[in-house]
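2024-03-11 09:14:02 INFO receiving multi-entity request
2024-03-11 09:14:02 INFO entity count = two
2024-03-11 09:14:03 INFO echoing inputs for audit
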Amino acid sequence: MAKKIQKIKNLRSPRGMHDILPQEQDWWDKVRKEVDNVANYYNFSRIDTPLLEYSDVFEKSLGETSDIVEKQMFVLRSGSGDRLVLRPEGTAAIVRAYIQHGLSHLGQPLKLFYLGPMFRKERPQAGRFRQFHQAGFEIIGGQDDPIYDAQIILATFKLLERLKIRNLSLHINSIGCRVCRPNYRKKLTEYYKPLSAKLCKDCRRRVKQNPLRLLDCKEESCQPYKAEAPIILDSLCVNCNRHLKHVLEFLEELGLSYKLDNYLVRGLDYYNKTVFEFFTESADQGGKAFDFAIASGGRYDYLMDMFGARQSAAVGSAVGLERVIEVMKGTDVGLGLRKKPKAFFIHIGDLAKKRSLTLIEELRSAGVAVLESLGKDSLAAQLRLANKTGSDYALIFGQKEAFEDSIIIRDLKNSVQETVPLKKLVNEVKKRLR
RNA sequence: GUGCCUAUAGUUUAAUGGUAAAACUCCAGUUUGUGGUACUGGUAUCGAGGGUUCGAUUCCCUCUAGGCACCCCA
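2024-03-11 09:21:47 INFO inference complete, emitting structure
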């Protein structure tokens, strides 16, 4: 008795995780290619780390109270009971690899880049997914020279520029260091505490838990207080101040315009001194408006410290590729892909069909882009496909031609065709496709 | 994780308490070896599970997924 095949119902990709379908791949190819180009241009070497890491890599480094660690990590338990997590970001894993393999020996600082999927267990929204892709640049080790901050920003800018992202605005700020940040936090808290009753619900909580986040508030009623709040620039220590000043000078030297944004604070604990985000305004007119960054980064000397690096200096950036592609699609710039000319092979009859296999192979190995649909036997259907795929020529090989050792080359644009001997096929086709 | 809205063919959208229309796409064909037009036909257990009902795609509940806001973030 034949077993009944049970259909699997409700097949779906997991929440917030998407298939990248063939129609989408051109965009991704373009992005991957430009990441590669820019990395090459600035001498960044590629590094790939596992999708899984021991949870310590992120828990200790991003901050135990950061949202990512508290509730956004996918945690797995291995057979032996180790806690593994799907990486929620790239930097911590790269620093781990850097330390583990003693990559400081490759020269300092080391310039690395990566591209791959990241995972965060968030509620999905436009521009926010549970599996998403980031490309990033890192300059690790050596001195905490502000020139590296500028180089990272430059490389990131160059990538976005090459991807034709218009109306970019670069926001930059310094969040100080272990010395000056606590001072600023204290000032901020002292300023806000008496105002507590007048603030929005979220801000009242922020005063106690995460004062820096007060600067992020978008609530109308809080804006006046925000405007009067002390800004971090006035609290920076000499060192941090000088660092920021140099970064800005370098950006000016490079002709990169920026907006000093005193309200910019980043979510991860490991940042110090320079933090920055790239926004795009193009999406505001029509289409979806993004009020989030498409790329961001900063200096993370403390992450190096935490992982026990000798040279505790590092700076990096990450680009959200889904967001970038979304913006690219919203502009009318398009991909500007040049179509390669191609030929479509058509067979008629059994003999011709059989011989098609070797003929097509011959063409392909000679470097000719050949399309075919060997499973379709009707001439009309094959021609229709040739037309739809945008092929330039149809190579028609039928019963008659198979006997004569010839083949028809048909120009699909002007419907002119010519019969040529098989021997000349490769050369004739190559000549025409050039 | 919280709140609100949504869920019908591959896609975009209709209608309806009595098992579903249309457009585009795709597939096949319009008499046997010539395409892009036209014409014909085909493709939906109406997100999943349960409940109310004689009967639900249509009403109710749960779950799942999507969107928006919050949280946070690329």
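2024-03-11 09:21:48 INFO post-check: DSSP finds 15 helices and 16 strands in chain A.
2024-03-11 09:21:48 INFO post-check: The longest strand of chain A covers residues 110-119.
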